[in-house]
Structures are given as C-alpha cells and as structure tokens.
Amino acid sequence: MPRQLSVQVESFPIAGTFTISRGSKTEAVVVTCTITDAQVAGRGECVPYARYGESIESVCAQIRTVQDAIEHGADRNELERLLPGGAARNAVDNALWDLEAKLARQPAWELAGLPAPSHLETAYTLSLGTAEAMAGQAREHNHRPLLKIKLGAGGDVERMEAVRQAAPQSKLIVDANEGWSAIDIEANLAVARRFSVTLVEQPLPANQDDLLSRIDHPVPICADESVHGLEDLDRLATLYDAVNIKLDKTGGLTSGLKLRREAEKRGLRIMVGCMVGTSLGMAPAVLLAQGAEWVDLDGPLLLARDREPGLSYKGSLVSPPPPALWG
C-alpha cells in the first residue's frame, strides 16, 4: 500500500475556562495529521492560532497542499521548503518523526541524535481573572513548584500580589501575552521583581520589541509571540534574555531543534512552551525541552479529557512519551 496522509479535526474539552488577555475558550480544537506507510501510522498534532492568522480551515488546507509530496516520499527536510513555519507544518513534521521512529523501530530521540529523555518539571498555568479568582487558583495549586500566571489587563499589580500571597513557595512566571505598554511596563517589571517572579513572557506587543533595549530588565524577559524561527534571532538577541520555543510556531520538532541550538549560540536562555492541546501535541516538545531552563508543557493538565494513552504526569513532573503515543 502506498504512503497515505489524512487530516482530522478533533475537540477536547477544557476543565473549566481558559482565559488569556486575548479571550477565553472552553475546548481545545486540534488538527491531527496521520501518515501511514506499510501499515505503520505516524501522527502529529497542531493547534491553529488566530493570533498568527491561522484557522482550523486554513491549516487543514495547508496540510493538503503537501499531501501529494508526502505520499510520494517527501521527507522532513523537503517539508521545510514546502511549508512555512506554523501549525500546519508542525502536524506534518511530527507525524513524519513518529512514522520514521516506528518504521525504524528506534525512538525519535535516538533518530534525532539526542540523549535519552528524562522526566521534566513543568509549569502549571493559572488563567487570567480577577485578583481574587487568581488567588483561588494559586491556593489550589500552591503545592506545584512552578506556576505561570496569565496577565495583560488592568489590575496586573494586584493579581501578582494576590498570587504571590496565595502561593508563597512556588516559583512564578508571568505571561502578559503582549498586554503591557510603554506606560506601565517598567512599573510592572518592578512589581514582578518585588514578588520574586523568575521570568516575564512577552510583555509588549511584538511590533514594540525595540522598547526593551531602552529599559532595565530587573526580571529576565522572554520572547514568545515575537519569535517564530531562525530569522528572528539576530534582532531579538539584543532585546530579550530568553525565548519561548513552541512547535506550533516553529513548524515542528525539526525546526524547533535548529532554533534552540541557534538561540543558545546567541546566549539566549531557553523556555519550551505549548498551546493548549493534548499529549500528542506535547510529546515531541518533551524531547525539545530536555535541559531547558523553563518548561511549560501543561496542556493536558488543563483538559477535562486527554488522549489514551497520554503522557504521564505525577504532580508537575511529566515523563517522556510512551511509543504508543508518539515517537
């Protein structure tokens, strides 16, 4: 049987509501790419993101533009030329990794020339809400060693204070999702330092990055929406202290590994993050995140229902993916 590629849209309910500065959602809608060859199937998952001009429909259409090439044997290196970085390429690239691993009967980490993966400590994300609501979330999860708090609206100072009081022992990451401005960034960074925040993600809109060269960084500042691929690094290395690498931005594990290597060469510290998706979407990122300074692969923890089998989470520790899931 010749190689075949198929695309499926799936929905997984979120436990409650997930809110950031750009809006709320109650389900994770993902696009799954499956590539079969000799009765062996490889899968990859992506989360289309409207912030980057993506939709479920556009991503499915993008994947179908490479269907013929993939079915005629195009590999991951060819895929990088056929599709731009983004969600569509992420799903196809990771399906190819999974297929290669299964056909070779070797784990994906070995094919990638990486050390054997171990468990990782992931952040747990607190959804944006009132200071009181976020304090309630923090109290519920104050046993976790690392909390990531979504900010980016009026009242962020009060939110940081409330979370810190509710989780005095947890390390904190602040994610403003481009929600701060030239008016409040310096004051907010000073408050973040006062409450021992370990990292601030993407405080400013991506087109206002240059302001970061003119202000102090009392807390390390991490690029997220501003960094997608290698082409961004030369400019960002003088503005940011760290980069958040997400496979849905880079376009899969192949390009994610390249981005990490180049970012490290420029002295940037590494965070590996995710969109809200299932264990299938997190699995290749677990390989990418080995040894990263900050890991945020909590997508499945935010769901009411995950895939079976999924990643194994014990508290905030996530284990490498089992072969039946991916890789």
Automatic annotation (TrEMBL):
This is Dipeptide epimerase. The keyword Transmembrane does not apply. NCBIfam families: racemase_DgcA. It comes from the Bacteria. InterPro entries: DgoD-like, Dipeptide_epimerase, Enolase-like_C_sf, Enolase-like_N, Enolase_C-like, Mandelate_racemase_C, Mandelate_racemase_N_dom. It comes from Mesorhizobium liriopis. Keywords: Isomerase, Magnesium, Metal-binding. SUPFAM superfamilies: Enolase C-terminal domain-like, Enolase N-terminal domain-like. It is an enzyme of class 5 (isomerase). Its cofactor is Mg(2+). CDD domains: L-Ala-DL-Glu_epimerase.
